[in-house]
Design brief:
Radius of gyration: 28 Å
Number of helices: 20
Oligomer: single chain
Largest sheet: 5 strands, antiparallel
Pathway: Lipid metabolism
Family: Belongs to the lipoxygenase family.
Distance between the termini: 47 Å
Cofactor: Fe cation
Structural class: alpha+beta
Helix content: 40-55%
GO molecular function: iron ion binding; oxidoreductase activity, acting on single donors with incorporation of molecular oxygen, incorporation of two atoms of oxygen
Subcellular location: Cytoplasm
Length: about 675
């Protein structure tokens, strides 16, 4: 290495990324180190978004560069600094070295050592300095990122009582944090103003009264829902393409606890067939909320709420739906479309109420947020920044730890929002999650097997399934391309000790007792599948359950967060007064609207799927794979938009440009 090198240092672009502290750099090569150099140009250095060049001298040839050492020291006032990357240009040579950072330097006299950007497995490192650096980095991270059993019989999480306990690298950027807090306050204030003319805690008088809070906070699909929610076809459509599209299953035979007969439903079938024949043909589908049975109901303002575990049969035919509300050991009847209109409407509301609980706590929280948190913690604990799998996964883990911490403290805790307005709030939500975790399988997280096992591979107009499979294929091709660059054979996977420590941490520490989740990886195919599951879950699956929640829940009667009276036992006794007394009251409805808008809205600092703002990979071959991934996502989006042309109710939640690259909300 010549005596003078040009060192380029890039400061972060988010608010408060810059610093006025002293920054020192030392270049470390195979044959020695450069001078420890203070980076100080005329004027202000390290301003937000700045990319500054400096000259670093060395009295001897350093050989190939291995790492860059950055040091930050206080100047008057302690001031954190976010470094994006460091580049080193060698005079007289075409090559330059890139050292990805994307980290905060926090505190006085803090030292960070950055490896050169080429992704390397532990077997690719031969120098003692390289190997010791990997080990030291992981030892430090394992002190910072620790496992915690938040509750028994659910996945473990990060050891942090609140988001304030997280290291700066896992926190929201300031803009994100300000928007997150401000938007919820805005929504709650907006809706509280609507309550001024309505006595707190009292019921509505009529379903149209819900329109009194249905302004300003709205969306086209939410308005469509308000206008069509009573229609049977729309009720059935939501099982396919609503906020919880993973429940519907082909019914091969009627459950033993569902005493429906052919005569009961004949009027709902086409005249030339029977229930028995339609079951045989595969045209009858089941949505079973048995997991809700016996869940303790919340008590809100000294009033017990109510929970049911309905069974719902659906017939694949336009506007043909029949269902049962089953709540052992009560005498709840079977409800049919031929029942009195108000009884039929209330029965559907009970199904949608169960849908709210299951989609929020199981499909959304457990199957996306908590699953990805396990991957995130394991990745931080077991894979050094130079490892190719760390580089692949890290962009898909952005903000996940903080949003999950906030969820546990602000939504799910004993004084959180769910306790105040949701029927499963308090003890119920944890028991529900524990039940689901007992039946969670690795296979069910893979969309191909999920659709196959539920028998819904040929169900018509199942846009969630179609788009999920398209995305899965693109993601799997991308992951396969990256993995194949660094693992030439199955034996290289099996012999990667860091990778094996990672999967052991995932399976043994994070996911305890999940069926078929092996604690070791033996083949490239196994690795590709697991990484595809991680990326699919943090992008597509989360978007499918999160991004539409305001659309389907804003009109509260369509998806009520709680029910204040038990299910009816007499169809003829159902009145509008009974319905209004059962549905969420004014206060509960306002909070449901606010929280679903807050969580379901597009985020101002969102990074769309496939857009890698932080460039951890530096090798041309890896960058070509990423570029191909982006092009395939763009083509997929064009295909999705074309499929939606002419549809009155469009399904666009899985457009890559509308999905975030990670779980951030």
């Amino acid at each position: 290495l010549p005596s003078n090198c040009t060192v380029t240092v890039a400061t972060g672009t988010s608010e408060y990324s810059g610093t006025n502290n002293y920054i020192y750099v030392t270049l470390v090569g195979e044959r020695g180190e450069s001078e420890r150099t203070v980076l100080d140009n005329p004027g202000l250095d390290f301003r937000r978004g700045a990319v500054d060049d400096y000259t670093v001298k060395s009295s001897a040839d350093l050989g190939p560069l291995i790492l860059v050492r950055l040091e930050k020291q206080k100047y008057w006032v302690e001031d954190n600094w976010f470094c994006r990357y460091v580049k080193v240009s060698v005079p007289g040579q075409r090559c330059s070295y890139t050292f990805p950072c994307y980290r905060w330097l926090v505190g006085d006299k803090v030292v960070v050592e950055l490896r050169e950007g080429t992704a390397k497995k532990i077997s690719d490192d031969t120098l003692p300095l390289e190997i010791s650096h990997r080990k030291a980095e992981l030892q430090e991270r394992q002190k910072i990122y620790r496992w915690l059993a938040w509750a028994p019989s659910i996945p473990k999480c990060i050891d942090a009582k609140s988001e304030a306990d997280l290291p700066q690298d896992a926190r929201f950027d300031n803009e994100k944090r300000s928007d997150f807090v401000g938007s919820l306050h805005y929504a709650l204030l907006e809706l509280s103003l609507k309550k001024l003319a309505i006595k707190f805690g009292k019921s509505w008088n009529d379903l149209d009264d819900f329109k009194r809070i249905f302004w300003k906070l709205r969306s086209p699909i939410a308005e469509y829902t308000m206008n069509h929610w009573k229609e049977d076809w729309f009720f059935g459509y939501q099982f396919l393409n609503g906020s919880n599209p993973r429940m519907i299953t082909k019914c091969k035979e009627l459950p033993s606890n569902f005493p429906v007969t052919g005569d009961m439903v004949q009027s709902s079938l086409i005249p030339t067939t029977t229930l028995k024949e339609e079951l045989k043909e595969g045209n009858i589908f089941l949505v079973d909320y048995a997991i809700m049975d016996g869940i303790p109901a919340n008590v809100i303002r000294d009033r017990i709420q109510h929970i049911a575990s309905p069974l719902c049969l659906l017939y694949e035919h336009p506007e043909k739906v029949f269902l049962n509300l089953f709540l052992p050991p009560s005498d709840t009847p079977i409800f049919l479309p031929s029942d009195p209109p108000l009884a039929w409407l209330l029965a559907k509301m009970w199904v949608r109420h169960s849908e709210f609980q299951v989609f929020q706590l199981l499909s959304h929280l457990l199957r996306t947020h908590l699953v990805v948190e396990v991957i995130c913690v394991s990745t931080l604990r077991q894979l050094p920044a130079v490892h190719p799998i760390y580089k692949l996964l890290t962009p898909h883990l952005r903000y996940t730890l903080e949003i999950n911490c906030r969820g546990r403290t602000q939504l799910l805790s004993m004084d959180g929002i769910f306790k105040k307005v949701v029927s499963t709030g308090g003890d119920g939500l944890l028991i529900l999650a524990q039940r689901e975790y007992k039946v969670l399988t690795y296979r069910s997280l893979q969309p191909k097997f999920d659709f196959l096992d539920r028998g819904v591979t040929k169900l018509k107009d199942y846009f969630y399934r179609d788009h999920s499979m398209m995305l899965w294929n693109v993601i799997q091709n991308f992951v396969s391309g990256i993995v194949s660059l660094y693992y030439k054979s199955d034996s290289e996977v099996e012999q990667d000790s860091e990778l094996q420590a990672w999967i052991h941490d995932v399976a043994v520490e994070g996911f305890v007792d999940v069926p078929h989740f092996a604690s070791e990886l033996k083949t490239k195919e196994e690795l590709i599948t697991l990484l595809s599951v991680a990326i699919f879950t943090s992008t597509a699956q989360h978007a499918a359950t999160n991004n539409g929640q305001f659309d389907w829940c804003a009109w509260v009667p369509n998806t009520p967060c709680t029910m204040r009276h038990p299910p009816p036992t007499d169809k003829d006794a159902v009145t509008m007064g009974m319905i209004m007394d059962t549905l969420p009251d004014i206060s509960q409805s306002c909070v449901e609207m606010a929280i679903t808008w807050h969580l379901g809205r597009a985020q101002p600092d969102a990074i769309p799927m496939g857009q890698y703002v932080e460039q951890y990979f530096t090798e041309p071959a890896a960058l070509r794979v990423i570029d191909k991934f982006r092009k395939e996502l763009k083509e997929l989006e064009e295909q999705i938009i074309a499929q939606n042309e002419g549809l009155e109710l469009q399904y666009l939640y899985l457009c890559p440009s509308r999905m975030e690259n990670s779980i951030t909300i």
